[in-house]
Design goal:
This protein is mainly beta and 116 residues long. It has strands at residues 2-6, 9-12, 17-24, 32-38, 45-51, 56-58, 66-71, 76-81, 90-97, 105-115.
Length: 116
């Protein structure tokens, strides 16, 4: 399984960005898709996940601001990020898993920078 992420960039605080991640290869293996992020000097944080049925989970730090969605026909997962804050600045990694957790497959990171 290969994951390719798109959509990072520089945005001002309170702005929005949408990340997307396309999966290819043995995609029938995938149940859960999601996003991790890692800021300099900080631990990696699981941001959001979504399973094939559409059930979602979010980190408390992004609830109400980020929305994860998935297009199974396109094998793509999206992360709509609204009301961005400088503390959302990080490298965001797309990830996927065969069963109930992500982490089996990783995409390349995409940088998100939020200026104050």
């Amino acid at each position: 399984v290969q994951l390719q992420a798109f959509g990072g960039g520089l945005v001002q605080a309170r702005g929005s960005l949408r990340l997307s991640c396309a999966a290819s290869g043995s995609i029938f293996n995938i149940n859960v898709m999601g996003w991790y992020r890692q800021a300099p000097g900080k631990q990696r944080e699981l941001v959001a996940t979504i399973n094939r049925g559409g059930s979602t989970n979010y980190a408390d730090s992004v609830k109400g601001r980020f929305t994860i969605s998935r297009d199974n026909a396109k094998n793509t997962v999206y992360l709509q990020m609204n009301s961005l804050k400088p503390e959302d600045t990080a490298v965001y990694y797309c990830c996927a898993g065969r069963y109930f957790t992500v982490g089996d497959f990783w995409g390349q990171g995409t940088q998100v920078t939020v200026s104050s």
